[in-house]
């Protein structure tokens, strides 16, 4: 699959300096290979560095040191997905996957950041009980995750504009409205409340146009879902916005504790005034012969 992700900030006045981090490079893991990736930034940064964050994600740091009234960041990537099997864990119960069951000390240290509540994903009253509707005693972890994903999909309404990036999770919990980011946070909070190791995942999903209509360029958007760590297997990803396993339609970019760890782009600028980004994302399937960035 090929991805083009464009973010443009236009400032009312000139900004003198900008310091930014971008999480735009798709991950390499057992289900995915990032074959090609590049980031183009306008105006040209004085400094650009590729870094690995504490969660193992690749991110791009850059600095712009000259006056500018527009900042444009365009990410191009080509990704190959590999559909795995769940046979190895079909008999594993969810209780066996709880953080407290980890016997490996190194694994406990690496996983603890995904096991406890945080400012964005607190342990809300009633959320543990909500999760336990799906996670009943001795239920296989694969069945429980599938049921929990369907539960969120069925009981929460996807409404663009119902929430914003900084909308607290308790508002989403009360209104049962939000977008993919909100549903991922609800899932992560609920899973951690019952002792599981859960991560927020940022990425993309291929969206198909209505039958008979051509796909419009730039109409897709960033996506988000959740993942549960299963000892001996790794991260098992599930998408509550679409009630489906994360498979060939998805591209994983980064895993974090919540959205604030892995936004597509964040930073500071000096001057420029109030600004809001314009974002356009295109995700398309391509043949092996056409595995290039494109324009």
TrEMBL record:
User: Which residue intervals define the domain Transglutaminase-like in the entry?
Assistant: 172-242
List, alphabetically, the InterPro entries matched.
Bac_transglu_N, Papain-like_cys_pep_sf, Transglutaminase-like
- This chain's protein is named Transglutaminase
